[in-house]
Specification:
Heat Shock Protein 90, alpha+beta, 2 domains, elongated, 5-stranded mixed β-sheet, 422 residues
Length: 422
């Protein structure tokens, strides 16, 4: 449990850091890209407004500033007209490329320019990218169309360089943070680990201490019964409660040992099909007595590597729980299937009351009951499913609790198949 808690803490911390980095790096790079596009669109707006070229330099106001510079929101450079690389194509009414202006570009031939213009016209968009060229489309008064292309290569190259550097730095930073979190996670959860270990030791030690007085009480009750005679309701009740407390103590000790890993498991190849079939046969009579339907679908020749005794106990606990909490007239379904890595046991039973979804994730916890008043008519202790969970984990498997319909409970156990053969 402590190892799982440490892994969960580590994964949660890493995912949190990753989410923050994704938002920061993603936001910065998106803003950077939008700036490149926005600046290009401003330049294209000037070019399309002036027929595909910048206004002549002598067209200035009384302060000596060209009109297009007065309209710029972010770009404020008197060298803009000389720094920009662009070309334009005028297409006819029929869409054929005609007049081209290639004076401010050398990387594109006239044929390529006409091909680009044809692709733009066929696409039907007024703005966009073809390669590293941002384009804008403007309709002319004579019915022709002006398409202007602006070379955004330098801006896009800067954007890609920053994106690459930011990703590399983020990955390095994430690895460093991961190493730090991994090393400090042990110290962070150490108080929890120590408290949990003390709790398990206390339960084990207290359980052993309680067994002695329980044995004495039971023996004294037998002696008293011989003196008074059988049939005394008070003596019968004492023996009943003593047995119940003894069972609870034994279950707690078993559960603690299983969670501590100190319980000796004999891992061997077992025929899970036979184990499930035998356990199902033991509970069919109880189900019939309680007017409960019991259906089985057990695949044959399913082998797993596990401790046979504990697996038998696991299935017995789950079937006992299903019979206890299934009302008269309800149904229990038991299914055994097998996949490439795991054998799967599904046990579904009807219930008198609908189990809230929030309660399902707590069913494997010790002493947890869906009945908050803890007034159980079944006589259970509330640790059966905890023991089932511990047994599944001890055998390298997993267990989950859910429901397939209203007023039902489904328990799914996955145990690793024996891939090495018998």
């Amino acid at each position: 449990m402590i190892d799982r808690l440490r892994i969960r803490f580590f994964v949660t911390a890493i995912l949190s850091v990753l989410a923050v980095l994704a938002v920061l790096i993603g936001g910065i790079n998106i803003f950077n890209y939008r700036n490149v596009v926005s600046d290009a669109d401003e330049v294209l707006q000037i070019l399309t407004d002036n027929g595909g070229h910048f206004p002549e330099s002598q067209d200035r106001d009384h302060n000596g500033i060209p009109p297009y510079e007065r309209r710029m929101r972010r770009i404020d450079s008197p060298e803009l007209a000389f720094e920009s690389r662009y070309f334009s194509v005028i297409t006819g009414i029929d869409g054929s490329a005609g007049i081209t202006d290639m004076r401010r570009i050398s990387a594109v031939s006239e044929d390529e320019a006409k091909e680009y213009a044809a692709r733009v016209m066929s696409g039907g968009r007024n703005h966009g990218f073809i390669g590293e060229y941002r384009y804008a489309v403007r309709g002319m008064d004579d019915g022709s169309t002006l398409v202007v292309f602006l070379d955004c290569g330098p801006g896009l190259m800067n954007f890609r360089s920053f994106l690459k550097i930011s990703l590399i730095i983020s990955i390095i930073g994430l690895l460093l943070v991961g190493m730090i979190i991994f090393f400090i996670s042990g110290k962070v959860i150490r108080p929890v680990a120590e408290s949990y270990e003390k709790q398990k030791r206390f339960i084990t030690d207290a359980g052993h201490e309680i067994k002695t007085p329980l044995a004495i009480i039971n023996a004294d009750t037998d002696v008293l019964e011989m003196d008074i005679g059988e049939g005394n309701e008070w003596i019968a009740d004492i023996k009943k409660q003593t047995r119940r407390l003894t069972e609870l103590t034994n279950d707690l000790i078993y559960l603690s040992k299983m969670e501590e890993g100190s319980f000796a498991l004999n891992m061997e190849d077992i025929d899970l099909s036979d184990v499930v079939e035998n356990q199902a046969g033991s509970f069919k009579a109880r189900a019939a007595t309680g007017e409960i339907g019991f259906g089985t679908d057990i695949r044959s020749d399913v082998h797993i590597r596990a401790d046979k005794k504990s697996v038998e106990g696991l299935i017995s606990i789950l079937l006992d729980n299903a019979v206890k909490y299934c009302p008269a007239g309800g149904n229990i379904d038991l299914k055994l299937s097998s996949g490439p890595k795991y054998a799967r046991i599904d046990i579904t039973n009807d219930t008198e009351e609908d189990i809230p979804v929030d309660d399902l994730k707590h069913l494997g916890e010790r002493f947890y009951r869906t009945d908050k008043s803890r007034n159980s008519k079944t006589g259970g202790h509330g640790i059966g499913l905890s023991m089932a969970t511990a047994i599944a984990h001890a055998n390298g498997g997993r267990i989950s609790y859910g429901k397939r319909k209203q007023r039902s409970l489904s328990v799914t156990v996955s145990l690793p198949v024996n891939t090495k053969g018998n």
